[in-house]
Amino acid sequence: MLALLQNIRVVLVNTSHPGNIGGAARAMKNMGLSQLVLVDPMDFPSGDAVARASGATDILDAAQVVGTLEEALVGCSLVFGTSARERRIPWPLLDPRECAAAVCEQVLQGSEVALVFGREYAGLTNEELQRCQFHVHIPTDPDFSSLNLAAAVQVLAYEVRMAWLVAQNKPTKIAKLEATAIQSSQPVTADELESFYAHLEQALIEIDFLDPAKPRHLMSRLRRLYGRSAISKLEMNILRGILTETVKAARGEHQGRGKTDV
Amino acid sequence: MLALLQNIRVVLVNTSHPGNIGGAARAMKNMGLSQLVLVDPMDFPSGDAVARASGATDILDAAQVVGTLEEALVGCSLVFGTSARERRIPWPLLDPRECAAAVCEQVLQGSEVALVFGREYAGLTNEELQRCQFHVHIPTDPDFSSLNLAAAVQVLAYEVRMAWLVAQNKPTKIAKLEATAIQSSQPVTADELESFYAHLEQALIEIDFLDPAKPRHLMSRLRRLYGRSAISKLEMNILRGILTETVKAARGEHQGRGKTDV
């Protein structure tokens, strides 16, 4: 069971203060999490990180440092992004408890998930948030809403551990989850979903539905729709096949039939 | 209702590092708590506390400094002591969620309660723990169980806020936002969904992806995907628009741009 917690990736984007990286590592280790990914950290490795980690140096040593959020999310089937603010486009929004329940459900199915935390002062950009299927908001006092980064990691890691402990004590719920897992086939990963969106955008441009000069909210609305649908690999193959034929049709390159062998 | 959170006292006993006092103040203010009591702190006031408080200086300024735990608890009807270890003497032991429920129940009755946190390295003494009616244990990994002091305050303050939001009967701000989002994005009806499937099938035939003579399971798979996505009316308009343009493209009837006004 413990192995399942290792399928949960904590991703810190563009962190300014190495002390917060150390604090996050300590919070993770306290709650049984181990997989830390740092996207373009400002100052790492660092003595401050080691000091605040207070013994969780194994997590710092094993931390993966990457250049972009995309790299950090490769192989993840579900991505949760922490968000402090209300956004104009409504997005599936969870509180930490709901997030933890969804995380546990996924890892019990053998999938990998990511919890993404933004910069200390600016959080995640809209573009980064659109790479997340779900947004998580920690319900702070609206008059003083900016949590310390390590504190935010602590709250989510704590909720994940609580959900995981509950799942361990309720075999019936696990059995139910496993049955669901068998029913639905393997989910696509975040990188596969990104390739799909790129393909979709290209096709929409080719059929003159999307004007790249005036994209409006079209792609983010489509991301929201497909992002919440838990698309399986088989379904993704179908959608990609449709896009391929759509592009051919738009270019007048119809190839005749024979594509329905799914 | 907010006034009730002011009846919750956070008591830090004999804290070594002033930075932790600042971190605790920030965590409290994030969650709407305000009453901080310091029992014999090693170093306070301190610039380190102000730095880590990150704007929660009003809580530091108003903090009461006392010499003994007894003084800190005057007027409290219920006292919860955090404990990292199992004790030889069995004591009523709560997890943070149970503690938060009990705290809220008390303050809703107009009582004052205290959450007591011990020293960074040694926690609370047995004598101090015996002054608490309940012990609270944060369920850490047994192999790495020592939480940072401010992180422990963060977890309990967060649980208190969650319980308080539930007690208010309008759970999280998120739930409210979600309700708004759902209201403003009315779901499609079954008949609208059927029209969409008919349109989708027609488009797939036009782009030569679907062979009507050999349809296989294609449409049922797509029905399963879109059927579980709870498509809104706005999203349906987008999907129908895409299909219309796809059919035009397949027929060589590109109309130029101007369809992205969504």
UniProtKB/TrEMBL annotation, chains A, B:
The family annotation for this protein states: Belongs to the class IV-like SAM-binding methyltransferase superfamily. RNA methyltransferase TrmH family.
- Protein name, please? tRNA (cytidine/uridine-2'-O-)-methyltransferase TrmJ
Q: How does it assemble?
A: Homodimer.
Q: Where do the tRNA/rRNA methyltransferase SpoU type domain residues begin and end?
A: 8-158
GO BP terms: tRNA nucleoside ribose methylation
Gene Ontology CC terms: cytosol
Compartment(s) of residence: Cytoplasm
Q: Which UniProt keywords apply?
A: Cytoplasm, Methyltransferase, S-adenosyl-L-methionine, Transferase, tRNA processing
Known EC number(s)? Answer: 2.1.1.200
Question: Which GO molecular function, any one, fits this protein according to its record?
Answer: RNA binding
What CDD domains does the entry give? SpoU-like_TrmJ
User: What is this protein's function per UniProt?
Assistant: Catalyzes the formation of 2'O-methylated cytidine (Cm32) or 2'O-methylated uridine (Um32) at position 32 in tRNA.
Task: Write down the top EC class of this protein.
Answer: transferase
